[in-house]
Amino acid sequence: MDRRKFLELLAVTPAVTPALSASADVVPRCRIVSPYAPAAVPGMPGPFPGRVVSVRSAKSVDEETNRADAEVVKEMMARGMLALTGEKTVAQAWRRFFEPSDVVGIKVNCGGRPHVVSSPEVVGECVRQLMALGIPATSIFLYERFRDQLDEVNYAPQLPPGVGIVAAESRHSSSDSRSYDPRTYVEVDLYGEEDTRSNLMRLVTRQLTKIINIPNVKDHGATGVTGCLKNIAYGSFSNVARTHHRGTSHTLSLVGTFASVEPLRSRTVLQILDGLRGVWHGGPFAFTRRYVFYPKQLMFGTDPVAIDRLLLDIVDEKRKAAGAISIWNRSPEYLKMDDTNARDQDPNVNVLIREPGHVEFAAGLGLGVFERERIALQDITL
User: Fold this and answer.
1) How far apart are CA 14 and CA 31, in angstroms?
2) Which residues of the chain have pLDDT under 70?
3) CA 29, CA 11: separation in Å to the nearest integer?
4) What is the pLDDT at residue 71?
5) CA angle (356 as vertex; 41, 258 as ends), nearest 5
6) How many Cβ atoms from other residues are within 10 Å of residue 341's Cβ?
């Protein structure tokens, strides 16, 4: 089925639309409900569609200790922001996106704890640059869905006093809805489940004016990769695990659908892919270092699709080098619908039919540029 047909089946409308029955071959119809209008220039794909800056440094991470060098990361951040914006100073580069009156959310990714998470060095440099623009610490919030994951990473000791650290739910697989906005949601019935709504976090709808998205380089058993799109979408909405459940993955269409909901789309103005470390199999988790590798790079852009298009190649090339099946391999031969031992599973086993095509689907929703020949990549090596 081609992308045009996918878009016809998606049929996102403001009216109630009956869902199609769940099937690997059918794109479920969704109803998006939001009182928020898009910005004149939505943050995704933003002012630099198709533009990506990659900054690499062999000195950024010590592979023996897994520790990042904060000074090297600071220089990588500066070079990346200057190259992306074309500004002459780092302050001017950050000022392209933020002003002192903003309330800024930093969407981290803690699912790969303890080994592959949004690096405190990257997060800390974002906070420092925001505060240098005059944004007070109390107007900056790190956020993630699950409190237990945030607590395990423990960003607080490395941040200035006053920076908020916010989670919507106490732990993974909880059902606490108090931190989600009842007015802003995606409704879709995938398999007759009791709760058919996924709600956007209140922090995003009621408090934040801008968002920085800091995902990781990670394999994912349902989507192929976890990058910019999945981090901002599935990390900001409730009740999303049901989209890859009972051997079926609807992530092809729903990752992009969630990311397109206002005000999330308009307020997510900067993408910084943290590729200092990565996980090439067993993701989005990294409970051991068995599948950890070290790209030692950061990617900068406003277009999440363009960055994720490059991420697909990074993860797939690493898997091929390790003798594992491609993230694009959808053959039933490799499918074992049992994720009870996902942490240690065979790299040549899929627990779901992977959907790396979600990146191209998101491009069809207007979130960015997918075609490799249209992506302007600038490589910088320190």
Assistant:
1) 6
2) 1-25, 171-176, 246-247, 337-344
3) 6
4) 97
5) 40
6) 11
Question: What domains does the chain contain, in order, with CATH numbers?
Answer: 51-381 (3.40.50.11440)
Give residue 174's pLDDT: 53
- The token duo for 70 is 């904060």
Q: What is the pLDDT of residues 65-84, one digit of tens each?
A: 999 999 999 999 999 999 99
Tally of CA atoms within 13 A in the half-sphere of 331 that contains its CB: 7
pLDDT tens figures, 43-70: 999 999 999 999 999 999 999 999 999 9
Q: Are strands 104-107 and 140-146 parallel, antiparallel or unpaired?
A: parallel
Q: What share of the chain is helix, strand, coil (3-state, %, to 5)?
A: 30, 25, 45
Q: Which amino acid is at 120?
A: P
Q: Tell me whether the omega of the peptide bond preceding residue 114 falls within 30 degrees of 0, making it cis.
A: yes
Paired strand residues for 85: none
Residue 308: is it exposed, middle or buried by C-beta count within 10 angstroms (0-12/13-18/19+)? buried
Cβ-Cβ contacts under 8 Å for 94 (sequence gap 6 or more): 81, 129, 130, 132, 133
Tokens of 224: 């192929």
Q: What is the DSSP pairing of strand 297-301 with strand 51-56?
A: antiparallel
204-214 per-residue burial string, b: 16 or more CB within 10 A, e: under 16: bbeebbbbbbb
Cis peptide before 28 (omega within 30 of 0): no
90-127 CB burial, b ≥16 within 10 A, e <16: beebbbbbbeeebbbbbbbbbbbbebbbbbbbbbbbbb
What the block records as the tokens of 340 is: 């009870």
